[in-house]
Amino acid sequence: MTAIYERELDSQLNGLTGYVYGAIMLLFAGIYVMAFNLEGSPDFTSVLYSMKWIALITIPLLTMRSIAEERHQKTDQLLYSLPLGMTRIVAGKYLALVTVMAMPLAVMALYPLALNAAATAGHVALKSAYGALVGYFFLGMALTAIGLFISSLMENVGLAAGACFLVMLVLHFLTPLARFISSSGAASLIAFGVLAALFGLIFWRLTKNGLFALVLTLVLAAALGVCYALWPDSFSGLFAQVLEQLAVFDRFDNFTYDIFDIRSIVYFLSVTGVFLFLTVQAMERRRWAS
Amino acid sequence: MIEVSHLTKRYGSRVAVEDLTFTVDKGVVWGFLGPNGAGKSTTMNILAGCLAATEGKVAIGGHDIFEEPLAARRQVGYLPEQPPLYMGMTVREYLSFVARAKGVAVRDLDEQLDHAMAVTGVEEVAGRLIRNLSKGFRQRVGVAQAILGDPEVIILDEPTVGLDPLQIVEIRKLIRTLGRDHTVILSSHILSEVQAVCDRVLMIHHGRLVASGTPEELEQRFSGQVTYKVTAKAMPMEVRQALEAVPGVTSVTAEAGAEGRTEAVIAASDTGPDMDERLSFALSDRRIPVLRLEREQTSLEDVFLALAQEDAPDPAADTPRRKRRGKGEDA
């Protein structure tokens, strides 16, 4: 795993990717610190809050090459033939990405101290500033895992970046999007029905077993129908609630309200775990291609 | 060393490899021969652990590749058709990465790298970026990564594809060197390559094993007909009559040549070593001077083309018959 980690780190730092990522992060951190902290408020968390959207650019940039490039260059065949489990290969790559992701955050960790030393904007609350920075790091971990998973599905680096950008965009605006959905029970039922069909489609794509995918979709649809018939009231607004639960970006907000939200950290780690698991499965699936 | 039993790989309804069964012994260079699309790369990928089979078993050094994948993969060094090289690394950096990923201990690392680079002859380019190397050197680096970790089995998928003739000769030399210490399996669609390098041949077609043995054994097994060419000083009619009387001769075509000579082509079902003597006596008994008598052997290429044409009725139907090449010659 160490060898994979070091190679991935090397490829990020020997090319432009790692530096462009770092430059974008530090550029915007600098702009926001200047705008918020140097001019008035000593609240460093607002800098991090404003920097959430930057993940739309930085996460695709950071993760796009990781596996898609290996597939494109056919170097993934080396990974498959190594006497190493796929979990360790994915873990090595992921940890390297997290290391690069954390590098500008390490530089940004000096900002609250520098602001206090300069004393231009009053005293920065270090506890809440570093709490938010830790939260931002965990948010970055979750988003990096999502980006790595998307990269594992693609063979084209540009496509991986585009798909990752779209997913980040949807995740970023998931809560406002959820508000557009009608709160009626029937609307939730239809939305869940579409989701069940989509799930069936993905299952069919992955397994190539049309009959099983169809049966699975029908079972899910029937289960939804039965649940709706039994508890129609509980369906009202349910889909919007589910979407809000999936809004990864919004889970960071509590950290900016001076709350060190352990539940959000557990949430970020869960998202990380799920997407790393999916990445391993996506890689293994190619070995079992049929 | 390698036991493959009833191996089948399907992609949807397409069968890439079907019910393949063979055993590869230790310390031999094996050639996996077949036309393009025969299922060679699929089989190589399965043996290397890169691809799972739909059915069947593969055991490498007693380890089932599906049940003990890591133990099995530890015994295999694999060079895919396109060498898996990281262009932005130097040769030494790349080989060092592969060695460590294969679990080579740090204390053995330098020794393994030096050995792999010495065997493959890439020491002189150790510090150069892979992207700046010629295709021949890249292929050598690919072979070097395959032998790192000292695997018992080295699998090379079409190792000479895209190389120039000089590079092909060098890679073949390298393969023969590797064959001294390892079991080497190489796939190729080039007969002369397999004849030049391999001790034994596995011939695959449409995903099925159609023949296996030494190149010589295969030639003997499949050569049911021998052709002789005779130049004699007599009229075509006389020559034909003399030759047709010889037992084992199935057909004779005789044409008049220059200076009263006749050029005859004789097809014989008797492949015995004294056939040429009988033909010669048949002519001399009639006082016909024999100026030339030549036996044209069935080459492995003929066998290969015959097999390839068996169930592919048309495409290679008018492929010319070529004479057998000697070992070491290029395609």
Concise account of the structure shown:
The complex is a heterodimer of chains A (290) and B (331). With 290 residues, chain A is mainly alpha-helical.
Write up what this structure looks like:
The complex is a heterodimer of chains A (290) and B (331). Chain A has 290 residues and is mainly alpha-helical. Chain A has 15 helices and no strands. Chain A is 80% helix and 0% strand. In chain A, helix 2 runs parallel beside helix 6 and helix 4 runs parallel beside helix 8 (126-153). Chain A is flat. The two termini of chain A are 28 Å apart. In chain B, helix 3 packs across helix 4 (106-120) and helix 4 packs across helix 5. Helix content of chain B is 35%, strand content 28%. Chain B folds into two domains: 2-216, Rossmann fold, CATH 3.40.50.300; 224-296, Alpha-Beta Plaits (2-Layer Sandwich). Classes of the chains: A mainly alpha (290), B alpha/beta (331). The interface between A and B is medium-sized, with 26 and 33 residues.
Index terms:
heterodimer; A: 290 residues; mainly alpha; 2 domains; 15 helices; flat; B: 331 residues; alpha/beta; Rossmann fold; Alpha-Beta Plaits; six-stranded mixed β-sheet; four-stranded antiparallel β-sheet; 11 helices; 14 strands; disordered C terminus
